[in-house]
Design brief:
CATH class: Alpha Beta
Mean pLDDT: 92
Distance between the termini: 48 Å
Bound molecules: S-adenosylmethionine
Strand order of the largest sheet: 3-2-1-4-5-7-6
Number of domains: 1
CATH architecture: 3-Layer(aba) Sandwich
Helix content: 25-40%
């Protein structure tokens, strides 16, 4: 699927990425999609659907981060389409990061830096905390968990761009509560205009209003297992992050 605004070189890099993804996918589980046209439509074009919002919040020379990047969605297509933005891609699975390193080498993408690790730990590293202008994450976790993982990484005034499906009312309600605890606020949650990708997407936009308290994110697994703002089995929302962090250290 040619994207008119991209140069011939960028289109070629996107095709190269698709071919590498499908080839490696025979050995490493990177995507359930096997058909090249489906990869173009459901993964690559779907990633590029974020470009108008990315361009709203991120300028040339800024830094962006894609967490839980996996096989590189949406980070690799966005880094190809916006080579003047410096991208950091993070994933917890070594084989996926090794694949991404091969993509960076094969397609010569100097604007991508890779980290293998869990965001719960990397977000406490001083050189990464509060660093990025924009954060993206697709198919990684629930909205409140994404806010807990993502808000500590972005600078005050920075933005999370979180593509989600259509049925997100419950997650969104929890995310509103979580945002208050984490120094963020939900800016919008609009269904994206039809782009012919065959995927219905709600884009949740979250802004960082002030620095996230140092207790977040909690120790690995906690943001997903016990999302902030979601009722716990006992009925009350989980608001006590301090104890979890003390256990972590
Ligand atoms: N974003 C890609 C996509 O849309 O195709 C990958 C989605 S895959 C379902 C989720 C990825 O998130 C996995 O590769 C997993 O290793 C990574 N992940 C989940 N939780 C994570 C965490 N806390 N820190 C780093 N990576 C994480």
């Amino acid at each position: 699927m040619p994207i008119p605004e991209l140069t011939a070189q960028q289109q070629q890099q996107l095709r190269g990425y698709r071919d590498l993804l499908l080839e490696r996918n025979t050995r490493v589980n990177l995507t359930a999609i096997r058909d090249p046209e489906e990869v173009d439509r459901r993964l690559i074009a779907e990633s590029l659907r974020l470009l108008p919002m990315l361009d709203t919040y991120c300028a040339n020379g800024d830094e962006a981060v894609d967490i839980g990047s996996g096989g590189g969605i949406p980070g690799v297509p966005l880094a190809i389409a916006r080579p003047a933005i410096r991208w950091t891609l993070i994933d917890a699975t070594a084989k996926k990061v090794a694949f991404l390193q091969d993509v960076v080498n094969a397609l010569s993408l100097p604007n991508i830096v890779l980290y293998h690790g869990r965001v719960e730990e990397l977000a406490h590293e001083p050189h990464m905390r509060g660093r990025y202008r924009v954060l993206t994450a697709r198919a990684v976790s629930s909205l409140p968990a994404l806010l807990e993982l993502g808000l500590p990484l972005v600078r005050t005034g920075g933005t999370l761009l979180l593509p989600k499906g259509m049925d997100i009312a419950e997650e969104l309600a929890a995310a509103r509560q979580a945002a208050g605890m984490l120094g963020g606020s939900i800016v919008s949650s609009d269904v994206l205009p039809d782009a012919g990708t065959g995927v219905d997407t709600t884009l949740v936009v979250v802004s960082s209003e002030h620095a996230t308290p140092g207790t977040y994110p909690r120790r690995p697994g906690m943001p997903a297992r016990s999302p902030l703002g979601m009722p716990r089995r006992g009925g009350e929302p989980d608001q006590d992050a301090t104890k979890s962090h003390v256990e972590r250290t």
